[in-house]
Design brief:
Layout: H1 3-17, H2 23-31, H3 34-41, H4 46-55, H5 58-64, H6 70-79, H7 82-90, H8 94-103, H9 106-115, H10 118-128, H11 135-138, E1 144-146, H12 152-162, E2 171-174, E3 180-184, H13 186-191, H14 215-225, E4 229-233, E5 239-244, H15 245-263, H16 270-273, H17 276-303, H18 305-310, H19 314-342, H20 351-379, H21 382-412, H22 417-420, H23 423-443, H24 445-448
Parallel strand pairs: 1-2
Antiparallel strand pairs: 2-3, 4-5
């Protein structure tokens, strides 16, 4: 949707909320995609958002709510009574309704579950029993399956009677005990003779996951095998649900955002639901830890103050070495964290990314060292050029080494590698770069003065 169309939809939605919409504005509002409607809804006052939600049918509201972020969703739900919320959740897919219920206070969630339709309430509660960020939380309990003795004609009739219009699907084959025994590709289903048994044209090599599997691993499997839908089976290989690619795309976006915020020493959720004071308190430990490390760099500089007083030009090159080496380390951290998230980097094969990084850092360090050495030679002397060039080369290579190993070491110890990166790596590298630079300068001081 273009900015112009979005502005028109915003104005139409605002007028609908206040009962002043013209006929064409009402038509635009009613035909808008739920994702577009959710985007403009966030720009309206809370009272108008509540009015819009109450103006929508339960089905339409059920389509809109999953598109809202957690903060907007909680604010809206708090303004509605339990009966209104339960009626809307009844119209939502069980996995999306579970996401809403999970965000509510326990007492309110219990009341709403009690007011929902019994079948839907049970499905939601079953989903909530699975660990957070697991495949069980992503899956839909709705799927299309037939017995092995069903014919193609019977399978197609079953699809017509049961498949949801909102979800991508595959036709699964299950035995009498509901064990997953195959999947029938839709192309085969549509081209096979109507009297053929589904069992005969099934693909028995089915990629599946368990409800307990982490959602990041689920995303990797979907990407690796180019799947549209992924069956979820329990420990006995019984089919319990499916995960569709649209849910996986949301997870990839969520995980990427979390990693980016954590590498910056922050938390994505803080931007949505916390006050500025709470945000400051949450980020304060990261900032103070970085401050303490940076103060060590100050102590190092103070320790070498006699060297600096004799060759003041050294001070001009310190920030250059710190910046280049720190940037190299941060780039290494970013690549390794991403590799760990996508499965391209494995802790058990740590030597391979380390070898590649050593080669890369050697090239980068060599070029930067030659450049800064040339500048140092023009500004001062050959000895000075040797100090800055050697310091640059060593710092860049050590930074690349640390940026590669820290995330993998963190992962092997059970920590989130994204949290250990960013500010800490840069701060440590500042201390290391200054120490190397001034130590070499002190060792060669007689040739610098």
């Amino acid at each position: 949707m273009s900015d112009q169309d979005q502005n028109r939809l915003l104005e139409a939605t605002r007028n609908v909320a206040r009962g002043k919409a013209a006929a064409h504005e009402q038509a635009m509002f009613e035909s808008a995609h739920p994702a577009d409607l959710a985007a403009v809804l966030r720009q309206l006052p809370l009272a108008d958002q509540v009015a819009i939600l109450r103006a929508l049918s339960r089905e339409r509201a059920g389509e809109l709510i999953p598109e809202l972020d957690d903060h907007a969703l909680l604010e809206l739900v708090r303004m509605l009574d339990e009966v209104e919320v339960s009626r809307i959740l009844d119209e939502m897919p069980a996995e999306h309704a579970a996401d809403v219920v999970e965000e509510l206070p326990a007492e309110q969630a219990e009341k709403i579950l009690g007011l929902m339709q019994e079948d839907k309430s049970e499905e939601v509660q079953e989903i909530l029993e699975y660990p957070e960020h697991s495949a069980g939380r992503l899956m839909s309990p709705d799927f299309v399956a037939v017995r092995p003795d069903a014919t193609i004609e019977q399978a197609i009739k079953h699809i017509r009677d049961s498949v949801s219009a909102e979800r991508a699907f595959e036709l699964y084959v299950v035995d009498d005990h509901h064990h997953l025994v195959g999947v029938v590709p839709l192309r085969r289903l549509l081209t096979a003779d109507p009297t053929t048994l589904a069992f005969a044209i099934r693909d028995e090599n089915v990629i599946s996951v368990t409800p307990e599997m982490d959602q990041e691993e689920v995303a990797r499997i979907v990407a690796k095998y180019d799947l549209v839908a992924l069956p979820v089976v329990d420990k006995r290989n019984r089919l319990v649900g499916t995960i569709t690619v649209d849910d996986v795309v949301d997870i990839v976006h969520e995980e990427a955002s979390e990693d980016i915020f954590r590498m910056a020493g922050s938390d994505a959720a803080e931007l949505e639901r916390r006050s500025p004071r709470q945000v400051a308190l949450l980020r304060l430990p990261w900032v103070l830890a970085t401050l303490v490390i940076e103060l060590l760099a100050g102590l190092v500089i103070h320790y070498f103050d006699q060297t600096l007083s004799k060759v003041i030009l050294l001070a001009s090159f310190m920030p250059v070495i710190q910046a280049i080496s720190g940037n190299t380390g941060l780039q290494s951290v970013t690549m390794v964290v991403r590799g760990l998230a996508t499965g391209q980097v494995r802790v058990g094969e740590w030597w391979e990314p380390l070898r590649r990084q050593v080669e890369t850092s050697s090239i980068l360090g060599g070029i930067c060292a030659l450049t800064v050495g040339l500048v140092g030679w023009l500004w001062h002397s050959a000895a000075f050029a040797c100090v800055v060039a050697l310091s640059m080369f060593i710092s860049v290579n050590l930074s690349g080494f640390a940026g590669t190993m820290i995330p993998m070491l963190s992962k092997s110890l059970g920590f989130d590698p994204a949290i250990t990166a960013g500010p800490f790596e840069t701060a440590f590298q500042d201390v290391l770069g200054v120490t190397i630079f001034l130590s070499l300068a002190t060792a060669l001081l007689r040739w610098l003065t």
